[in-house]
Amino acid sequence: MQMLYDSESFVVVHMRPDAVEPAATTADGSAAPLAQLVRHGFEIVDKRSGKEVYLDGSWAEMFQQQILAWQRNTPTQEEVEETLDRYTGLAQNPVVVH
Asked: Its domain of life (predicted)?
C-alpha cells in the first residue's frame, strides 16, 4: 500500500499486489500464507463526503494512465482535485476507519 496523494479534500492510496505480507502463524506453530491482492487498485477517499471508492480492473488501469500523465506534465493541485472530483460520483462506501 502506497499513499499517492493527501490533501484537505482527498486521499489516494495505491494497493499493490506485489506487497509482501508476513506469514501468519497457525495454532500448531506452522506458517500459513496470508491472502494477497491479485490485481492492483486505487482507493480514493473523498474527505468532504466521508465516502470512498475502490478502483480495480479497467478502472484502475485508466486511473494509472492518469497518474502517468501527471508524472509527465506536473499538474496543479486544482487540476488534480478536479480529476479526483470526477470519481466522487462512484464513491458509495462510507469511510468507517481510516
From this structure: Bacteria
Domain with 62, as residue range(s), is 2-20+34-94
Q: Rounded to two decimals, what is the model's pTM? A: 0.72
For residue range 13-22, what is the model confidence (pLDDT) as tens digits?
Answer: 998 876 555 5
Q: What would the grid cell of residue 87 be?
A: 470519481
C-alpha grid cell, residue 34: 496470508
